[in-house]
Amino acid sequence: MNYLSQNAKRKLTLLTAGLISIGYVSAQNVTQQQEPFKGQIGKTLGDSKEAWTTPVKAPKGAPNVVWIILDDVGFGASSTFGGIIKTPVFDTLASQGLRYTNFHTAGICAPTRAALLTGRNHHYVHMGGFAHTAMSAGFPGWDGRIPSDKGTVAEILRENGYSTFAAGKYGLTPDEDATDAGPFDRWPLGKGFDHFFGFLGSQTDQYKPDLVEDNQHVTPDGRHLEEQITDKAIGYLTKHRKVAPDKPFFLYYAPAATHAPHQVATEWSDQYKGQFDGGWDEFREKVFARQKKLGIIPANAVLPARNPNVTAWNKLPADEKKLYARFMEVYAGYLTYADHEVGRLVDYLKTSHQLDNTLIFVIIGDNGASKEGTLNGDIDRQVFLQSSTQEENIKHNLEKIGEIGAPEGTQANYPLGWAQAANTPFKYWKQDANSEGGTRNPLIVYYPKTIKDGGSIRTQYGHVNDILPTTLEFLGIKNPEYIRGIKQDTLQGTSLVYSFDNSAAPSKHTTQYYYIFGSRSIYKDGWKAEVYHHPDFNDLTKQTTYTAPAGGNNFDNDVWELYDLRTDFNERVNVAAKYPEKLNELKALFDDQAKKNNIYPLIDWEDVLKGRIHKNYKAPVEAGN
């Protein structure tokens, strides 16, 4: 029987969170459900029967689990999936594990991470946009607050005897809660982690991060953020092994790399000096050939044309080529450095004799490569916004070319041409939920004890919400009926365990929607219908001056496209006119999924940028005003 009102429950939650934050109650004691007393109470000890709570234990022999997710890495960037940016640690893990080439994310960071941690669709867990004030709205799919009946992987595994740690980017805490005053129920410790070290927002400076440890902000030590989070993760695991060597752990390791700002020591970026002087067109051709050779893409695949908004490299002036090549050198060094830091973590597991009993998932990017660096690259956001022309921005960037990637004074992000190159062999990029370029990311699964087909490729369709069900099935753990007394909703993802030892197994994840601020698509059994609903692309040169697409933001005016991914995996041939019945079928399916997953009302970037979706948000000042 429910004796507490909703208001009383809220007060109890806030009180508990406050006690946790000041150290009177441990997060673990609050999280774990107390067993009912099974003894007998008499008037004296002699006529009473004592009983003790049975400690929660993981299944016997349960492996450790590590989830690694990088940020803003395109499908064709890493050497592991055909790219020419060196990622030797990922290469090694993949050579002993499985590479999934048909795996998908939500298309942008917070939605992807919400789906990953909960095993459910992003709108279904209220993360249709972000937890940021400006990008959330007062509707179930959009308020940026993951409900308690949709428990996270950390909550589930801790209920099943695991220690749980997180290091790096979280990105799911509402802005209003992200101060040292809390409340803390939507911080990582409030969502099941024993310890957390990293940042709560979407991005941060790599040398001066907005840094949090457990339930309070802390002062960074001046080193690169990736080094700090790796040290902290290893520290957590070292202490855990010392005091509880037989207890398995779960580690969520989420580097800021390679999200802007691109900042890395020159010892990493200078490794790539001169290697991108041939430009983004040459890069795409090289990567495409490597992907075919490695079997990452079909042998008969065709490379899509360069996006019309990207200038051909051979038509650029020499000074722009020099500038843009340096942007990419820094990005490449940043990715290789991130791989190196993952290597430090893997080396620790190996030297501590835990690697052989650790199930590792590596998701190389939470979406496609970022288009947010604009057409000409971005070094200083404020100067960029105040520049009245592209020429002024290029001139400023050239003057500061030596500072790209430096720890002081710059917030670099590469130009659009490199985003398309890093997304080879797909069209478009981050934020474009309609496109494989926005939503298809590499996945590595590593566990040599069970995976005997090391180095092989899997083409089964997968989505980020599949990782939690996969983990639970592999561990032999069921999604709990209750967490902290709250009845849990069902999972929506599909376990990939069936494909671990069967490369020919048909895909079990057969339907999946995508929606990010207007761009949208629906996948069903190899077919995909999609809409590129965006403002005029030329307005990307000024991110604050978007205009509405043709027809305003009237979604009824959008033109749907149709692709048969079974024969056209990278969406080159629109067959909407050839198969109108299939298109209508998929449009109806999208509507059905929208209703089930809280996608409605449809919200797009114009609604965000003009401050229509949140009463406390003020639209940005127009550039130059």
From TrEMBL:
Alphabetized UniProt keyword annotations: Calcium, Hydrolase, Metal-binding, Signal
The record, for SUPFAM superfamilies, names: Alkaline phosphatase-like (SSF53649)
In this protein, which residues make up the domain named Sulfatase N-terminal?
63-477
Q: Does the keyword Calcium apply?
A: yes
The region annotated as signal peptide is 1-27
Q: Which family does it belong to?
A: Belongs to the sulfatase family.
Query: What is the protein named?
Result: Arylsulfatase
